[in-house]
Design brief:
The structure is a single chain. 0% of the residues lie in helices and 41% in strands. By secondary structure, the chain is an all-beta fold. The strands form two sheets. A six-stranded antiparallel sheet has the order 1-10-9-4-3-2, with no helix packed on it. A hairpin with a 6-residue loop joins strand 6 and strand 7. It is globular.
Length: 108
């Protein structure tokens, strides 16, 4: 379950060159269990890696192709927008991403 946490992370394009291309992603620090930062082709989005599945504890979700998976429960979400596609009833916790020069600033 996602805990309420203050998110204020910055990624530089030098550290995250993969985010300059559509349909790419990276893990980053921050959030309750870390972050998934994804360039979906239209913009860059960030999700908390804590599974939002009730009673999953602090289960960390992982990227598997174009899906995000909770290996403890089998729940799955679309990487594109964080929406649930299997077992899960709610979307991944999403954070705001703003581009400032060669930085991505991730906040809630």
């Amino acid at each position: 379950m996602v805990l309420n946490s203050v998110v204020n992370e910055t990624l530089s394009l030098d550290q995250s060159l993969e985010l300059t291309l559509a349909n790419t992603w990276t893990y980053a620090n921050g959030g309750g269990c870390g972050l998934i930062v994804h360039n979906n082709g239209n913009n860059v989005v960030a999700y908390d890696r804590c599974s939002p599945i009730k009673n999953s504890g602090a289960s960390k979700v992982v990227v598997d192709g174009m899906q995000v998976v909770d290996s403890n429960t089998g729940a799955k979400w679309l990487l594109m927008d964080g929406s649930p596609i299997h077992i899960a009833e709610c979307s991944l916790q999403r954070y705001q991403v703003r581009k400032s020069g060669n930085l991505y600033v991730i906040t809630n």
